[in-house]
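Section handout 9: paired folding examples.
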Amino acid sequence: MEQYFIIDFDSTFTQVEALDELARISLKNRPDAEDVYRQIEEYTNASMEGRLSFSESLAARVRLLEADRDHLKQLISHLKKKVSTSFSRNSNFFKTHADNVLIVSGGFKEFITPVVTEYHIKKENIYANTFEFDEDGKIIGYDHDNPLSQEGGKVKLLREMNLQGEIFGIGDGYSDFQLKESGLIKRFFAFTENIARKSVIEKADHVTPSFDEFLYINKLPRAISYPKNRIKCLVVGDIGEEALSQMQKEGYNIRHREEIEDKYLQEAGVLFCDEAHQPTPEQLAAAGRLKVIGCFGRVQGRKLMDAACENGIIIFDDPRNNPRNLDFIPKRVMAFMNEGRTHMSCNFPDLQPPRVSNAHRLIHIHKNVPGILAKINEVFARHNINIVGEFLVTNPQIGYVITDVNTGYDTQVLDELKAIEHTIKFRLLY
């Protein structure tokens, strides 16, 4: 069955509401600009939450804008920098599914088209409103005959299109939920990476904090193998907000505790701790999901570093009085989680592999015994998988292998790699 993906633009494909941003540009020199901004934002929220009809909200916002074509050019440049992070990193999905991805928005083609076409989305698959201009290029209105300018416009449009297949809706607003309510789409995903509207979340089939999560749930190709929102980052001790904000922005599920408790450590993929709150070697042995520790201060002794290494857990630490550690630690942790980089770890061998496009990256951590690399490559050879790049580093305890392979292989390969004798940890990175 054909699959279609109906995606909203404002606060979904992009991090912001475009008309609100256009107001910031067009009204910046007016003395009452702040009052007008607030009015426009209120009209936006009232419509998105279902408190005001979309047609009333749209008319009121356009009337307040006082914008022209030059303002639109500035807006487009701004919006290109505000594409939602999880959409941006999954550009390849849009290229692969170009015939089936539709942007359906109550926004305007004049600013939507230049932004989304850079992500391989076809112009003919963009459904939105259009502005009307006077001879001087000033926006004086919009096409009221376009169904997307009207209340329930997305429902009207999809009825007219009569798509035959399995249809998924992704958006943050009430007009997106109306597609599900009408019975026209199979499932509605409330997209909350940028804003979470309670009235929409309560009615959604699924809440998706990122586009990665949507792709993961539906077993679709994606840039990262496992959504960050599913990875718990346990925070114990005195950890600065600057460091945590970087992890939150990346999408990690932050969890604060007073002490390192076994239950929470065993659920965590990342641990942030300080010098006064560090796990025991015994706790690390039982923390099967833990991949990386960011210690804001020095690790307490070689025994802990060795225990982490033996269990395939990398540690990055930094002296507590060093002002750069609020930036240093999260950047090192993210470089490991995203790319497999171990540079400046205190317990893993150093490896800084380059990013490879159009390939899958596999990480294999094993005891440092002879013959493991040969066994890894034997699995690839048996399944006729081409190796794009391979990197091996060791220390006295472990071997650390990163292999980049061509896409398009049976997932049985992953099970075979995990089953190699002396394997400590294995994961598909992307």
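Moving on to protein 2 of 2.
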Amino acid sequence: MAVTPTFKPASRISRNPARTLIEGMAHDAVRSGFELEPSQRQAAERLAAFGAQVTGRRRALPRKSPRSLYLHGPVGRGKTWLMDSFYGRLDARKRRVHFHDFFRKLHSGTHGPEAGNGTAIQQSVDALLDGVEVLFFDEFHVHDIGDGMFISRLLRTAAQRRVLLVVTSNYAPDDLLPNPLWHDHFLPTIEAIKEMMDLVEINGASDFRRYPVSDTGPGHGAFRSGRIVSPGTPRQLGRLGLFRPPPSQSRVLNPTTQPIVVKNSDPELLWVGFEELCSGLTSTADFLALAETHKTWVIDDVPVPAEGDAASAPAWQRFSNVVDVLYDQDITLFLIGEGPLDWDIDASDGVLPVDLARIASRLSLLGRSDADTSMESEEAAGS
């Protein structure tokens, strides 16, 4: 008599997908030289459960759809790192965008014949969501009511198309668009965020960007290989393989619509002054375009942050955007200034960027070459 083979249900013979994801993220952490601290571990477990739901809903309709995730907490607590590790291991149709790159793509799609109307905006949002199950949105923040309107449109469309979101932010939803002149106008969108997403706080005690780790896992190795140099003597720069370009190498670049005078530009290196880069009418779109073609940046003549005044506030905000873009694109960055370049200072006077803590955290990844360090190295070499 023929024996009918029996099979265990697939759910019993296959490995738990959530467990596979959490173990994978833990492995990425070990490869990067650290272990997940408790709040990171809890966030990783929540991401893993979310990932299992995403892959599971392709096999059978669940009783209810997964809820999007909103990861928030202070700077440097590993939100982006966790998202990138999870992104690399999630088997789904997915797309990752950074806040600045998102708005560049959104605005670039609204300059056609229908620019300025709701149809063009909707088409841009549709293009960003097209063909994806999960949209990963890094560094979510809102300081401008105009950006808030775009965000509202994105959330509505994602909900209608059943596209799930994984968001990282330094702000809890209630703290978005903190400007009291506009905050009340954004409250309906804040409520929509809390209705659509589960909030996951990552609030460990340490800013992990301020501690060196290896570059074998998700991270920003090229950005970290840059340096902050003060006062920028020829000997200091020469040790780093940097040599100030002569005036004959100066040229004008047009990354988008705004011309920028730079001191040198070749396929690998961009050398530009702080004034030329940040004090004109440059935009984040310019910085993103330049980052696509230059993998090493040198910004010199950087002013002393503590000496900023009201007139310099727009330039410092553009500088903040530059750092965000270069960090996200993993560009090697050298900053050169005559005075002390210290961003761990009070920003409550409104001169320095609102998100100064994030910028200080990111710049802490860069090594430092200052006058005292250079003299100590010379003395050690001489002895």
